[in-house]
Fold each of these.
Amino acid sequence: MGRGARRRGGQDRRAGQLLRPRRRLAADHAGHLPGQRRGAAPLAPGPLPAPDRGAARDGGRTGGGGRSAAGRPGAPDTRPARVRRDQGASPHLLARPVLVELAEGTAEEGLRTALAALVARHDALRSRFEQADGSWWQRIAPSAAAGDPLRRFDLRATAGSGVGEAAEITAVREAVDSFVAGEAARGLDPAGEPLRASLLDFGPGRRPWLCLTVHPLAADTRSWRILLDDLERAYRQSVAGTQVDLGPEPSSFRHWAGLLAGHAAAGGFDEELAYWTALPDTALPDTALPDTVLPPEGPGEAPPVAGEVSVSLGEGESGALLRAAPAALRAGIGDVLLGALGRVLCRWTGADRVQVELEGHGREEIFDGVDLSRAVGRFAGTFPVVLGGTPGGAPPDWPAIVRAVRGRLRAVPSAGLGYGALRHLAPRPPGEDRPRVAFAFHEPVDPGESVLYRSFHSPPPARRAEPVAPGVRPLEITAYLADGRLRFDWRHVVGVHDRATVERLAEDLLEALRAVAAHIDPAAGRAERE
C-alpha cells in the first residue's frame, strides 16, 4: 500500500451504495451528454504530482515539471484531459444543462453573489482546457479572472397572458425547454469558463427558472449535488446580508489526482489485479452479439452516429420498485435494475453471464488528510461487473437474482476505483477488454426544505444525430426518475444495432421490471393494467 494511503476498511458497505447515490444527485445532466458515453465517467486521470498551491492560484497548468507517464515533456494533465484523448470527441459537445424552478421573488443580486462564491471556492469551476500536441490539458484560472457568472433573460412575452393558469404553465415550460435546447446545442467553449448560469424571468407572479450548465470535464454527478447545496447556502447568507462562508476549503481534484497517480505507480492497487483479471471473459466481440456488425470507416465514409430509444414504467410500477423493493428484497433500486438487465441481456445473447460497465463515484477514502466529501471535480470512474441470467430458461427467482447482484457489487474492491487507476496509471493494467454495455442509474434531485429551489426538471434530450466518439459502448442505458416514472434511455450506435433490436430490448427490460413489481406488490401491476 502506497505512502499516505489508508487501509480501505468498510469497502463492502460502500460498494453496496455504488448505484444508490445521495438523494441530491441530478439525473438530467449526467444522462444526456452528447458525444460522451452515457453514465460513463473518466477512467484515466493523467498522472499528477502533488500540485504546488501557489501555482494553482496563479493559474498554471496542472502538475509540476519533468516528464509525464506517457513520456511527454512538461506537466502531465488531469484525468478528464486523458479521457478526451482516449475518446477523440470534441469537448464542445459535452455540456448538458440542469434546469431548476426557483422560488418566487428570488433576488437576482443574491443569486449572482452566491454563484460568484461557488466559482471562488471550487477551482474546478475555473478550469480551462487547452489542446496541445494532440492532447487536452487542464489549467486553473485565478479567481480574479472569473467574469460575471449570471445572465438574465426576459421571457415575459413567451409566458402568455390571460389565457388561464394551465395554459400559462404550459407556455412557460415550452419556453424553458426551448431555451434549454438552445443551450445544449451551443455547448461550452473548453477554453472558456466552465460554468454558465442563465436566469429566466417570466415576470411578476411567476417563478423564475435557472438554467445551469457546467462542463462535464469540470464536474461529475456527485459534484452537482455539492454545487447545488453550496449555491443554496451561499444564497441564504447573501440575501440575509451576511458574508458568504461555505466552511473549510475542501481538498482539490488536482491534489487528489496527483496522489492517486503516485499511489497506482507505487503498486498501491496491485492487490486488486487478481480480482480484475479473474473476471469471466464476457466482453464479447461484435460478431458474438446480435446485430453488431460495425460499419466501415474508410476514406470518405461518414462516422457512425448515435441513436436513442426511450421507454418508461408506469407510476404505480415505478413506485412499487422505488418504495417497496428495499424492504421486500433487502436491496436498493440499483440492485433490482441490474438484476433485471442481466436477465434481459443474457436471454438476448444466449450467454449465462454478461459484463456490464458501471459507474462509481470514485471518492474512496484512501489518502490521509484528503476530504472529498465537499470537493468538486471529475472523480467518477467506471468498472466492469458480471451479471448472470436464469439457468435453463427457468422462471426467474427475483430475490435470488437481486441477492446475487448485491453480492457481486459488495465484492468489488475499492468500489471500482482501482480498476481505472490500474488501467491507466499502473505499469501492469488488468487487460484491455471492456464491456460492450454500459449502465448508469441516477436518482432524482430532491429540493427538500429549500429557500431557493422549488423543483428540478428533466429537459428533453437532444435528438440531433451526433457522431460517436471512439471508445463509446455500443449500448449505453441510463435510468432515472422523471415525473414519477422510471425512465430508461437506450443509447446505441446506428449501424451496430438496429433500432428495432434496441426497442425490443427496452421493452424486455420493462417487462422484467413489471414482473419484479408484481412480485413485490401485486396491486401495482393490476393498477397499471386498469
Amino acid sequence: MDDLCVIAIDFGTAFSGYAFNISARGEESDPRLKRWGKEYGLETPKTPTCILFNEDKTFLSFGYEAQMKFKDMRGEEAKKHYFFEDFKMTLYKKKLSDLKIKDASGKPLEALKVFSESLRFLKDDALKTISSMTRVMAFNPSFFTWVLTVPAIWDESDKQFMIEAAKQAGIVTEGREENLLIVPEPEAAFIWCMKLQPDEFILKNHIKSLHQSPGTRYIVVDCGGGAIDMTVHEVQHGGALKELHKFSGNNLGGQTVNRKFKQFLREIFPDGVWDEFQQNYPSLAQGIMYEFTHLKQADTGIKFSLPLNLRLLAEKKAGRENIIKSGLGAFCYGYYIHIRRDRLMSFFDESLQGITQILIEIFDSVLHINYMLLVGGFAQSKILQQHIIEWFGRQCEILCPFRAQETTVHGAVELGINLQVMNIHKSSYAYRFPVSQRLDERRRKEENYFTAKGIVKNEDVLRKEGVGVGSEETRGFRRSPATAGQADMQMTFNHSSRKNPDEWGEEKDGPLDRTTSELKLETEFGSTEISALGIQLRSHFCKKSVTVVFQSFCMCSAVNDSST
C-alpha cells in the first residue's frame, strides 16, 4: 500500500467517527467520511460514543446500534448488560493503572477493555468500509497510517493509555508502532479550517477571505463534548504554522451542560424520583439525555418527551397535580416537559465562564490575534456562539465552520499525510536529562543542581519550550556507569510544566541491556513524537529504541533492535 493510505479516528466524548484517504501518491483528494445511522433513518458524520457488553462482559455493539438495543431493553434485562456512554473523560486526571469505570446502572468494568473494544469496532468498521469501496477482500491494519486524536489537555499518561488501547484493539502491532500518530484535536481541526473558503463558515463577520499571509494569528477553540482545548498559531513564511501558546483548556465541554440538565431533572421531579427512574429504566433515562443533546443547540426554550414510567413514578410520589415542582423554570403540559430559555441558559453558565476565563488569559498574553476558530460539536450551540461573539467579537474575527463537528477528523487525515505542515510546536513541559552526581556546593549555581524525589542531581537540559516538529534535530547524550560493578543503567527524562523549576517530576523508561560500558542516547525531533535510541558504545550491537509521545516525558514503547 502507498504511504498516503491514512485512517483517522476521532474518538470523542459524545460522538466518534473516522475518515480516510487512499489516494495514490501525487493525487490530491479530500478525506472520505463515514456516515452513520442510515438503518435508523439518520445520516450523521459521527455515531454516539457508547458501547454495549453482554452480561458476561463480551462485546455486543457500539454507537447507534448499542444505543438502540439498550433503549429497547426492559428494566431487568438492561441492568444485566453493561452500557457505557460519555466515558472518554474518565481518564482525565485519574490514576490509570487498573482503572475501572461504571456503566449506566453502576456496574464496574476495566477502562482499558471499554476503550480498546470501542477502538476495535471503529478499526474493523473502517477496514470493512474501505474494502467495500475498493472491492478488495480484506485489508491488514498495518497497510495504513493510523491517526488517533486526543484532547490537548490530556497529559502523557492519558496518551499512553490510548496507545495501549490501540495496541489491544489491533490498530498497531509489535514492531509497527510508527504506524500510529497521536494528534491533539485542536491542531487537527485547525489544519482543516485552513483549507475552507469563507462561505463554508456559519460565523464569518462578513469576511471576504481568510488571510494566510505571514504573521496572521489564529486562536482555535475546540469545543468538544468533554474537553475545551485552545491553542494559538501564527502563519510563517512558506505557509508553515508556528504555535505561539501552549495548549490550554479544561474539562467543561458539552457534557458539563448535560450534567447540569441531569441535576435539573433531579430537582424538578419529586425527591428521589429521577434516581429511581434512572436505576429501574436506564435505557429510557438515556433516551432523554440523547434527546437533550440535540435540543441544547437551540437558543430558545425547549421541550422534551415525558416517558410514561417516569410520569407514573412522579404521580405515585406526589400526586397527579405535582408531577414537577413549581418555580424552577419548567412546567408539564401533556406528554412533554417544557423548559424556559433562561433556565436552559443557566445550564451553560459553568462551561461558558470557564471558556471565557481561559480566553481572557490567552488574549492578555498573546497580542494581535486576527481570527478565532470555533470547532467541535459543542461549537454548534447558538448559546455558546452568541456568548463568544459578545465577549470577543471586537478583538478578532470569529469563525465557525458549517460542519464544526467534522473538522478534527478531516484535519487528522491531512496531518497523517503531511505532518510537516505543523512547523513549530510549543511543548507544555520543560525536559531535562539528569545524571546522579555528588553535590558540589561550589558549583551549585554554575551547574544548576536540582532535587528529584529527595536525591540531589545535576542536569543536562534536553529541551525546554518550543520543541520543533519537523526540525529533524538529533541530540546525543553519553552516560557511563556510576560504579564498576553496575549491571543495569536507566536513561531518565524529567519534566516540569514550569519554565525554571526547582523540583522536577520524574518518569523512567525501562532499563537497557545489562552493561558496564558507556551508553549513548540519541534523541531525534521531527514528528509529533520524540524518538530515542540507546546504544551500547563498546559493541554498537546492543541497541534499544523507544518512542516518546510528543508533549510527554515517558517512554511509550520499547522495541529491541540488534542491528547496527
Amino acid sequence: MTCTDDQNSILLQTAVGFVCANHNDNSRGLYKNIVFDLCSQRTYVTDETRRLLNLRTVGRENLLIKTFGEETPKLRLCDIVQFTVAGDDGLHLYVTAHCVPSICNAISDQLTCNALVKYPHLRGLKLANPSGPSDFAVDILIGADFYWNFFCGETRRGEFPGPVAMLTKLGWVLSGPVINNSSSDQCTINLSHTHVLHVSSVSDDNCDVSSIKSELNKFWELESLGIRNDESSVLSDFNDNITFEGKRYEVKLPFKENHLKISDNYSTCVKRLSSLLYRLNSKPDVLKEYDRIINEQLSEGKSYGVPLAPPLPEFRLSDDFAFTNIGVDYAGPLYVKDIYSKSGEMNKVFIVLYTCASSRAVHLDLATDASSSSFIRSFRRFIGRRGVPTLVNSDNGLVFKSAELRAFTNSRNIKWCYNIERSPWWGGFFERMVRSTKRCLKKALGNAHLSYEELLTLLVDIEGVLNSRPLTYLSDDCIEPLTPSHLVLGRRILSEPLFTPNPKVVGNTSSEFCKRKKYLQTVINHYWSRWRNDYVTQLREHHRSRVKTGPIIREGDIVLVFDDKVSRLNWEMGRVDRILPGRDNNVRSAVVRVQNKQGKIIFMNRPIQKLYPIELVRD
C-alpha cells in the first residue's frame, strides 16, 4: 500500500534483484522488481515472471485467499516454483514461491533517490532499488517464509519523520515516510482485488448524492471486514443467544456461527488448551466432572456404531466356472515327521486353503513354510489343477503382499484384493472354511504324528468331505442334495449318485459324442440352476445383520485403537485421518494416524468396531 498527500509519501521495502531459474545458468536471468512484506505468510511471483524465466513447477497447493470486504474466502490452486536471487556478495539465495496472476497494483511515488539527498543518515548508502518517482510494478513479493534470509540485521534511523534503512543482501532498502514537496489533493490506496475508497475535493454544485452513498457503502463494507449482516437478523440472533451466568450476561457473537475451521497448528492448539484449562480451573466442580467423564470414556467407552452389512459383492453371486473368484488363507502351523531323519525330527508345515467364492468348493494344499516363494509354488499347483482365477481375496498377511507375488499375479492379469487389517469377518467366506478344515483335522488327526505324504493324503480326504457337504436344505421332492462337487464336476465324488437322469451313451460316432456332451452340459446347467434358485435364495434369507448403535465417526476424532494383545490402558492413541466409505457410502473402516513407541508417525487401516472415541461429540 502506498499513500500520498500534500505532506509526505510512504516508502515500502522495495528492491531490484537478478533472478534466474538456476544459479548455474545466469544467461537466462532477468532483473525483477521485488517487494518485502513481513505480514505475508507466503512468497509470491507473478505468472508473467514465471513465463519469462521458464520456471518449472515443483508442486501445487490450495490457498484460501480473502481480501477486505469479502465475506467468504476463495479457494485457489497455486503452482509452486523455485528460483534464485543473486546477492551483492555473489551468492544465490534459493526461494520457493506461489504463482499468482498479479500481486498488487504498481506502487507509485517511491522517491528513494530524493530520500538519499534529504536525509543525512542515508547518504552514501547503496540502495537495492535506486529508482526514481516512476511506478514500481511488483514482480515478486518476499513473505515471512524467506524474509529474514535476505536481511542482514543492520539498521539506520534518523530523526522522525523520516525513512528507516535496513541492510539486505541486495543492498539497502528504505521504509517509512518521506517529505514530498509536490502538492496533491488526492489520496489513493493501491490494493489488488478489493474495495478502493477514493476521496476527492468537489464543489457543491457537482455533488452527486447517489455517488456519495455508493462510496459510503463501499467504505462501510471495508470497515465491516466481512462480518456485516442484515440488521434485523443480527438483533434476532442477539436476543436469542443471551444467557445469564450468575452475575453477568453472556452473548454469542453472531458472526462466529459459520467461522472457518482452524487449521492444524501446534502453537494454536497449545493456546486453546491453555485457555480451556484456565476456564476449568476457575470452576473446580466443572473440572472434576470433566475429568470423570474423560476417564470413564477411556476405560469404558464404546466403539463407533456399525451400520447394516452391505449387499453381497458381485463375485459372491457370480455363476462363472468354479474357482473363477476365490479366497485364500493360511492355516497352521502343523508338524510332520522327517522320514529321512533317524532321530524322527518334526518339521513345520502350513495348510494353504483356496475356496471358490460362489460354489463354496475348497482346494487344500501344503506349504513347507510361510515364505512368498513357497506360496507361489502352491499357487502354481492350484492354477495347474483349477485354472487361472480372475479375482483373489485375502487378508493382509506378509506372504500375500510380497513383490514377488505381485509380479506373478500381474503377469497373469489376476486381480488381488485385501481386506481391512484386523477384521477377519470381512473374509468370512474363506475363514469359515478354515474353521471346518481345522475341525476335521482335530477329529481325524488327534495326537498322531504324520509324515508329509500322510498329512497331504489326509488333507485331500478332508477336501473331498468338504466338497460333498450339502449347500441347501433337503426337501421331500429333492432326491439328491446340492453339493460343491456338483457345481465343479457335475456329480458326487465320495459315493455313487442316487439318481441318473439319463442313461450313458455308448458308441464312437460323432452324433453319439455330441449327445453325450449335450447331456453333460445339461447336468452342469441343472445344478447351477438349483444353485441360483435354492442356495442363493437361502443365502439372502440368512444374510442378516444387526445395527450396532454408537457414536458416529468423523475425520479428526481422537480414538483408542483396539489391541487384543495388551490391556485397554496400554492401547495406542491416534487420530482419524481419513474415513473409507463402502459401496453403499456407509463408513465401516478408517485410516488412523498413530505415533509408535519409536516416535515415528504411521498410518493404519482399522474397522470402526476397533476404534474407541475419547472425545464426546454432541450430534
Amino acid sequence: MAELLFQQFSRFTRDIYSIRSMDKFFAQSEQQIARMLGCACCTIYLLDSDKSVLIESLAVGNKSSDLSANAEASEVPLGVGTVGTVAQTGETVVIGEVSKDPEWNHDMEAVQSQICVAMKVDSETLGVIDCRDPHPHLFDDELRILLETVAAAVAARLEALLWMDELDRINLTLVDEMSLREAVEIASEVKRTPFPDFPKAASERFLRAIDFVEEGFALWDNDERLVMLNAPMRELSGLPADILKPGLSFEDWIKKRIEYEQIPEIGSERQKWVATRVELMRSPPADPVEVQRNGRWYKLQYRKLDDGSTVQTVVDIDHQKAVEKARNQFTSTVSHELRTPLTSIIGALGLVHSGKLGPLTDDVAGALELCKRNSTRLLNLVNDILDQEAISAGQLRLDTEPTPIAQLIDDAVDLNTQYGNASGVSIKFTGAKSAFCVDADKRRVQQVFANLISNAVKFSDSGQAVEISFRLEGGLAAFSVSDKGPGIPDEFLPMLFEPFEQAERSDTRKVGGFGLGLSITKSLVEMHGGSLTHSSGFGAGATFTFTLPLAEG
C-alpha cells in the first residue's frame, strides 16, 4: 500500500512537472486526479489577481449532467459555495451526500459526493481542486489525504509555471532549462526537504499519508542513505528515534539493529550476515524474501527506482504463515489418513465384488456395489479438497505440452461415456475435427472435461445427450459442453464458481456433489492462460465454454 501510494504520487508529480503549457497542465492534472480518486469530475479553480473571484481553468467529466461545479458559469465569488468557502478558509471540505446536507446543498441533483481542497504554497492559497461524483460517500480519509498531497504538488508546480511565464515575458532565459526542482524552490521559497524531488508541503503530506499504511516502508537514496521511513518501519526496526535520521547508511542500519539485539538469530556470523544484507539491497531479487525475526515471520522486499534510490518494504506475514502451516497439516492429514486407506478400501471392494474371492449372492453383491460407489464418491471429495487446497496455496503445477485438439476431445468422450451410460445419457462430439494443437496439461484438461461433463450428465434426463463442440477464437481454442437440463437459476449465477456452492442446497437434493468442481475447473483453465464462461436460460439447459491457448508452430 505504501509503495503503491509512493509510485502513484511520484508518477503524478513527474508527469505534471514535465509540462510547460498552462492549458495542458490543467487538463492533464484534472484528468489524472479524477482517475486516481475514481470520481466522475475534477475541476481546478484559480484565484484572480484581486483574490476576490475564483476562475474555472478547465473541467473534465460529464458537465452536461451538472457534475462539474457551475457548469454554466466560469467564476465563483470568494466565500460562496463549497469552492468559494474552501478558498477563503483554506480548510478541506468533504461531503458524503450533497443532497442531504443542508449546509452545502446546491440543488445539484446529479452530485452526491464532493471534496474541495485548497491549493496552497506555504500559507498562500492559489486556488481550489473540486472533485465530484454521483455516488454517495466516495471520498474517505485515504482519498482526502491523497488529494491534499496532490494539491500541494499542483500548487507548487503552478507557482513554478507562473514564475517561468514571468521570466519568458521579460525575455529572460533559464540556463540549460533550469531544473524544475530549482524553479519550485525559487518560486515557493522552500528549503530542501528529506524528500527533495517534491515540494515541501507535498513532502510533509506524503510522509503523514504513508504512516497510515500497515506495512513498513523506507526510502534509501542512491548512496544507500536513509531518506525517509514510516511509523510501522520505525517500530519494526526496534531502534531509537535519535538513530533513525535521514543520512543513516543502510549498512549502519543493519549494524545498529544487531547492536540493539533485533536480529538475535545471526549468531557469530555478524560480518558475513551484514555483507549479505547489503548485497541483497544492492541487487534485489524479483521476489520478496521471507525472514524470521524474534519468532515472527516477515516478507522483505527491495525495489530499485529509476534514479538509483531503493524502496524497502516489510510486511508482517506471521498470521499468513500460521494459516499456511495449518493448511499443510490439514492437507497432510487428509492425504494420509483418508485418501490412502480409501484407495485401499475401494481396491479391496472391487476385488471382492469381481467374484475372484468366491461367489456372491445378489444381496451381498448389491451391498458391495453400494459400498464401492459411496467410497469412490468420498475419494472424489478428498481429491477435490486436496486440489482446492493446492490451488489456493499456489502449489499446483501444470506440465503443459503441445497436444492435438482432436485427441483431447476423443479422450473426453471415451473417458466419460461409461459415466453417462449409467444415467442413460450419451456423450457426443458435434462438429469437424481440428488439426490444431493447444498448450495443455493433458491430465488436468481431462479433469476439466470430466467436471463439466459430469455436471451436464447429472442435470440431464435419461435419453438426452451431452454435446461437446469446438471452435477457434483468434489464438485460442474454445471448447463447449452443453446439456438440455433445467439450466441455472438467475439467483445462483453470482455464486456459480464459488467453492462449496450448489444450486440445490437442501439435504434431499436430487443431484450429488460437493460444489468444488466448477471452482477447481475455473482455476485449472485460468492456470492454462484461458477462461471459463457459461450461458444458460433457466429451463433451457446450460453451456460451459473454456478456452486454451493454441500451441505455436
